[in-house]
Amino acid sequence: MEAQQTHQLVERQAELAELSALLAEAGAGRGSVALVSGPAGSGKTQLLQSFCKQAADSSAFLLTAVASRAECELPLGVMDQLFRCETLPPDFRRRVNALLADELAANRAAGADPVMMNQPSITVANELRSLLLELSERGPVVVSIDDLQFADGPSLQMLLFLQRRMKSSRLLLLLAELSTVRSPHPVFHAELFRQPNCRKIRLDMLTRSGAHTMIAARLGPAKAQELTDPYHEASGGSPLFLSALLDDYQAIHRLAGRLETEPTVSQPAFRNALTDCLYLAEPAAFDVARAVATLGTVGSSVLIGHILGLNTATVEHAIASLTATGLLDAEGFRHPAARTAILEEMPPEARHALHLRVATALQNEGAPPVTVAEQLVAAGTAPEAWMINVLRDAAHGELAASRTGMACEYLDLALNNCRDSRPLAALTADRMRIEWQKSPLKAMRHAERLKEASRGGDLTGQDTGLLARSLLWHGRYREARETLTRWEANDTGSDRVESEELAALTGWMAYSFPALLTESAGSAATPEPDACPDSARPFGRQAVSVLFRLLADGPGDEAVASAEGILHSVGLGTATLESLHAALLTLICADRPDRAASWCEELLKEAEQQGAPTWQAVFAAIRADAAFRQGDMATAVKQGEAALSQLPCPSWGVGIGGLLANLILATTMIGQHEKAVKYIRLPVPDTIFESRYGLHYLHARGHFHLATDRPAAALTDFESCGRLMTTWGLDLPSLISWRGGAAEASLALGLKSRARTLIEEQLTRPGTQQPRTRGASLRLLAAAGDIEDRPALLQEAVSLLQPDTGRFELARALADLSAAYHELGEHDRARGTAERAADMMTSCHIPAQWAQPLPVVRPPHSAPTAAFAGPSRSAGPDAPDGPRKGRKPVGAEALSDAERRVAELAAQGVPNRAIGRKFFITVSTVEQHLTRVYRKLDVSRRSDLAAKLHGSPPEAESA
């Protein structure tokens, strides 16, 4: 019997009318049989109940029974139910009980054929027929039997016997059964329909209109308009499922006070209806439904048969039955939550075992690795070796599609079940690769297992490269070198791709971790160029080779073209990060930071799409470097801070030195010294000073010291940087102009001759023909030279420096040129050049005082800061005596030359605009000078300046 239903009869009026007509005929003495059939949940039980109620209201006698799978082997179980009905008069019940008791004993001995009857059964059947005919004299008799497919054999015998002898009686035999592809009682059906008094009534699923009618009756017309389509689709037109969905809908509304437009098929009423439906369907339907739920699709009958150990015909019958009930369509379950409900109904052990059987069957069918791996993950185990290989292949497929979440699940399951050392090493490396994209620090938890695998010879060349990169990233240089040395000793060269990849990594080490190679080789780290043309090398080696040649020989169109060719050709991945990084640095060092910035934007988008925060952080840091080279300090700070937010400091490893270098420089340039101090105070690994990142860090910190009036400390950092670059064979001004910084510090210390020597040395170094490097060098050479020589040098510097690649250096060169013109009496040219310098500074978001000439005025001053960690040395024996030695300068002694000149004119009452015109600086610069003067002299008004300055007259030269 179908689940008890509370919905009204919908789209069954014609069938109900047909049954009523048959009852009328029975009342007229023309007995008949009606067999109602339909899929599970189609409303057969409700139709019988509605009709029986009408029959009872018309004074007919009702004898009802419901067959059950649990009693299908119980002889005369259905007959026993019929004749124990409360509607049967007591005297009839007593007579029937005696007859059935004798017949039950006979059937237990003789078997239960549904058609062939023995003599004792015929005798009993005749007696029962006589009783029914006697009862029908009092009124029409309706014999109703539901779920006939579960009826026992002897009861079916009795029904056929009765049918053959009831044509002239007042009997209506009403039967209901589940329509199936394969009838459980084919001979019974054949006998039943041989008789002309048998009528077959077929129930179909509800149409959309019928579903709308049912929903409107429960929820009203307005809500029915909204819910009909999704609910009709989810229920498949099954009155049973639709009623259950509406029950759940109303229950949720009562509890939560909300209405959902999507079917809530995971709630109790639907689950109960689903279980009832599967119970009533084909015998194999439950198992087939579970297999389909496990597969996620209907699949092939052959495959499901292999999974369940059933023949194909049985599977096809079950699928047809489930489709007829509205559970399945051609693809699978009509609603995904129905699948979930079936899976959750299974005991965990049975569910896991079924997933394993499905995985095995799929593998045997040649299914894609991901399809098989999904089943293994659902099973929670992978006990066989082939399963480990499938999980790894599936993980690689997911990674190729940027789905790292599922890739991790596959790898974790494989790792938990793998027992062989070589596959275990490969799986560990894969897991480390994925984690590195999100957190290089977290990824290091796999390093010890990979080091052990390396020592045991279980690592491939690719995985050796991964381990070495990770160790280098975190400053574990010696361990990285040991790992690579061990691989090289055992490398037979059979895998050219792996060998070339590791060769590219070694080249990258020469650039980024030169101390490591210098230590092992006892010489400079810069690799010698080989005769092999770039086009014949793998991209990794090409990228490093192009970068080194650029740094040594200076920029050219060929280097830019090679770098962009690599960026066009190389996909983003852990093993290609060095290649991409080297190509981007080539563009930056080739005075094409604009192209580098454009490529970084593309790579940032790709890294975001792949969900790789590490890659996003790396490219944001390079984007910051490009912006700094362009003179776009605001973007440099923004991108640098974005990189720092993507990865916390510990995850950056030694690379934090390069990122902080850009942030320190950019914030220093725009006068945000408090921010710069914050970045300087961030802890960095000691090992950064064994890498190029330490060089950038020392260089940036040196400029911060210059900006905060600590030229001796600045000189120490610049010289420490230079000493390391020389030792490592990386003394390339286009990489880091440490001599330029040292010269600037020397000028601030009054060491003009030393500054000139440093710049002259720099101009002899490889790569100094690069416009930006040469232009900046000429500016400093002019500052260290005689006034008569300055304009020519500065004019050449201005001609070399371009606004789109070096606005900041161009602005400073213009400021120096303005000062030179002024000192030589060319005031109009001085004024125009100063305005160009100020405009350039504004476009860079840099305070105009940074454009002041050297050495007359230095960058903006701030309170001296505490000493910072890192390589250090004394400023040298030729550092001049003065207020910078010993005690800290106070009062007027603490003023710079420019601040003193502005202060003395202000003390005389000269307006700010007039002071700016006199010294060829902006009003904003005058105000900034005065702000610092007030602070240093501890005054708040101009009228107090004269007393603090002792009345010293201002000097009439450029501020």
From TrEMBL:
InterPro entries reported for this sequence: AAA_16 (IPR041664), P-loop_NTPase (IPR027417), Sig_transdc_resp-reg_C-effctor (IPR016032), TPR-like_helical_dom_sf (IPR011990), Tscrpt_reg_LuxR_C (IPR000792), WH-like_DNA-bd_sf (IPR036388)
Region listing for Disordered, in residue ranges: 855-894
Domain HTH luxR-type residues, every copy: 888-953
Gene Ontology BP annotations: regulation of DNA-templated transcription
Signal peptide: none
This protein's GO CC annotations: cytoplasm
A GO molecular function held by the record: ATP binding
Any Pfam family matching the protein: AAA_16
PANTHER family referenced in this protein's UniProt entry, alphabetically: TESTICULAR SOLUBLE ADENYLYL CYCLASE (PTHR16305), TRANSCRIPTIONAL ACTIVATOR DOMAIN (PTHR16305:SF35)
Protein's name in the database: LuxR family transcriptional regulator
Lineage, broadest ranks: Bacteria, Bacillati, Actinomycetota, Actinomycetes, Kitasatosporales
